[in-house]
Amino acid sequence: MTSVADPAMLQRRAKETAAPAATTRDIRLDFFRGLAMFIILCAHTPSNFFTSWIPARWGFSDATEIFVFCSGMASAIAFGRTFDRAGWTLGTGRVGYRVWQVYWAHIGMFFAIATMLAAFDTFGDFDKTYIGTLNLWKFFADPGPQLVGLFTLTYVPNYFDILPMYMVILVMMPLMMALSRISVWAVFAAMALIWLFAQRAVLDALGLIDLHLGFPAEPWSDRKWFFNPFGWQLVFFTGFALMRGWIPKPPVNPWLIGLALVIVIANVPLSHIGMREFGFDWARGWRIANTGLFNKSDFGILRYVHFLALAYLCWVAAGDGGARLKTVGTGLLSRAWGALLKMILKVGQQSLAVFVFSMVFARLSGFVMDQIGRTTWNMVLANFVGFAALIVVAYSVAWFKSQPWRATK
Q1: C-alpha 384: how far from its chain's center?
Q2: Core-most of 103, 261, 351, 398, by most CB within 10 Å?
Q3: How far is it, in rounded angstroms, from Cα 90 to Cα 105?
Q4: CB atoms < 10 A from the CB of 185, how many?
Q5: 237-258 residue pLDDT tens
């Protein structure tokens, strides 16, 4: 019987894989995922004027694409290496363990937020009912069936749908790794086909709406998960494929930079900023008529195109290996940027814990603002307190993960 550590077997497996997995973490990955965490906090804080100027207002894609794409790249490093070294079965086992961790993070986040909102309503006398702000009426009115739905992921309220989407995409990873042993083209075909059957607008136009892939979000309606994992897997596995080497690193040349700039700039008239600040009122009608092209739930194709163009420009701007991220100015400015960069990277490295905390903190911050009023300075302070809290959480989680008590005698 051949051992999983048999060098001959490992050599054969390496040949079966189209390209070796990346073995080092690129700081650009952690930097942009860290930025996404700060943006996500702003976006989830109720009535936060910071959200009027976040990247989502300038084009179709937003911080969710950054988070999912970078998670795909990080997964190629973390899990791809296990598949290569230990084989498909143990690689699948490690993915399953991560799904288990994310599942309990999801459950814990729901109960933390639901309990906090219930406490506001129970011990306070406010103008609004806070469990209603996240449409949790059914859960508190009839908790038995909803608890079953919560634990089976058949009850997924809108605010709590990112981690379930991430779990399902992770479950797809062993399939993609198995297909890669046949051909990377088999992986790309699977990605495209799964994405296509997640496009409600396309299937409806073809009279095939019954074939739409999606998961039910609640038992009392036909609503599906807001973040459809079958659509969003496209951007996740694009990042995964780039880090695995299945997609070659794009060259840096003026033509590609120009094309990416044209795509990003062309999105501005169709964006919220374009309509609100630059007077492109005609875009409202276009957006209504073409919603399926940039639908966030199913991950419409224009979101993908816009994100790839923006990601390419950011990749070029950051420099090879993130060289330009490491060097900004000289003297005091350089030291200040270096300290800030370390904090952003740490947030990006601990993205799951930071994300869960940010979702809880966003609701708490919104509650506090309801009580003291949303002046410009109050909201600025609330946002920066939130940013500082994310950094503290990231460093705290990293400290616990390092298990420093093991080094003591």
Answers
A1: 22
A2: 351
A3: 23
A4: 12
A5: 999 999 999 999 899 999 999 9
Burial profile 164-184: b = 16 or more Cβ within 10 angstroms, e = fewer: bbbbbbbebbbebbbbbbeeb
Q: Write the pLDDT tens digit of every residue in 150-168.
A: 999 999 998 999 999 999 9
Q: Is 63 left (phi over 0), alpha (psi -120 to 50) or beta?
A: alpha
How many angstroms separate the CA atoms of 261 and 313, rounded? Answer: 8
Name 216's bridge partners. Answer: 224
Give the whole-angstrom CA distance, residue 239 versus residue 26.
13
The string over 240-258, giving b where at least 16 C-beta atoms fall within 10 Å of a residue's C-beta and e elsewhere, is bbbbbbbbeeeeeeeeeee
**Alpha carbon distance 115, 105 (integer Å):** 15
CA distances from residue 254 to 251, 314, 319, 321 in whole angstroms, order as listed: 10, 14, 15, 19
Residue 234 · residue 195 · CB < 8 Å = yes
Quote the tokens at residue 323: 């060289």
CB-based contact 168:237 (threshold 8 Å): no
